[in-house]
Amino acid sequence: MKSLVLLLCLAQLWGCHSAPQGQVLQYRQLNCDDPETEEAALAAVDYINQNLPSGYKHTLNQIDKVTVWPRRPFGEVFEMEIDTLETTCHALDPTPVANCSVRQLMEHAVEGECDFRLLKLNGQFSVVYAKCDSSPDSAEDVRKVCQDCPLLAPLNDTRAVHAADAALAAFNAQNNGSVFQLEEISRVQFVPLPPSTYVEFTMSAPDCVAKEATEAAKCKLLAQKQYGFCKATLTEKLNREEVAVTCTVFQSQPAAPQPQPEGADVAGLAPAVDQDVLASPPSGADAHAHHSPPFILGNPLGFPLHLMHYDLRHLFVGGGLRMTALGEARKTRAVGAAAGPAVPLCPGRIRHFKV
């Protein structure tokens, strides 16, 4: 009998020591509007904007879900779902996103939806997983707030390419410095009355000045690129076209970063030096003198050319996953879920508007 009791005691002790340590770990359920949650969400949005090579910066609109898992031996993993809105600042614009205006519903807003996992270690957040999608608001919703407002059009539409070429030729005709080349068509809208094409695009300065360049395409690009961002409208008249273009030239800066796994340093952009220029086509100038490739030079990221915006789906597809940070968290899921009913603290507040 004593032997049986001793055997049972030994069995219990062995079971305690052999149980996976992950089973004793518990998750935390935070409020979506908790300051710690918002800090993690803002770190996620910073990750988006620091790795955008094209399109427009995004800002946080709503936190939909958050769960915090312990991570051995140190730190926690924040598993989050967030909604973002597109701003009017281009990805190459050095302006901090906090100072960028959110694109309004009547301008045909674009919403982003993202899944993130962030490691919090020593009070600092770092992204270990990012997967995003984005889409423009529906035409029906735009019509509800503005019946006559133009909708987004495909970025590679021939009318958009023509309008960007004409606007760039007009800008270069009045610019005594470098001959700028078309880098990317970022946004297109067609206005019915008067018939016109509104286009936003980026440009880059080659390594030559206007008087030395016969063709901009033959110029060698600078190692430290100088970029500019332009908004232009090409209006169709009876027998002619009128172009109005406003450009902002940024201070020279390194080439735009590409999406990359966590651990690689992403350099901040240099402060901008604004040089706003309002240009019109010079008298007798050939609007087609500068022939630039449509949509984006070389299309290095493989964006579908028919899109009406730069979809975050093609930039953040789950890359940067660090399994050592998530392996322990996944072991705790079953026990954490059984810890008790979660208090419905999400989704959080809407900061701007719902698309």
UniProtKB/TrEMBL annotation:
Keywords: Disulfide bond, Glycoprotein, Mineral balance, Phosphoprotein, Repeat, Secreted, Signal. Its main location: secreted. Residues 27-133, 144-255 form the Cystatin fetuin-A-type domain. One of its GO terms (biological process) is negative regulation of bone mineralization. This is Alpha-2-HS-glycoprotein. Promotes endocytosis, possesses opsonic properties and influences the mineral phase of bone. Shows affinity for calcium and barium ions. It holds the Pfam family Cystatin. Residues 1-18 form the signal peptide. Alpha-2-HS glycoprotein derives from this precursor, when the connecting peptide is cleaved off. The two chains A and B are held together by a single disulfide bond. It comes from the Eukaryota. GO terms for cellular component: blood microparticle; extracellular matrix; Golgi apparatus. The keyword Glycoprotein applies. It comes from Cebus imitator (Panamanian white-faced capuchin). SUPFAM superfamilies: Cystatin/monellin. GO terms for molecular function: cysteine-type endopeptidase inhibitor activity. The keyword Lyase does not apply. It is found in: Secreted.
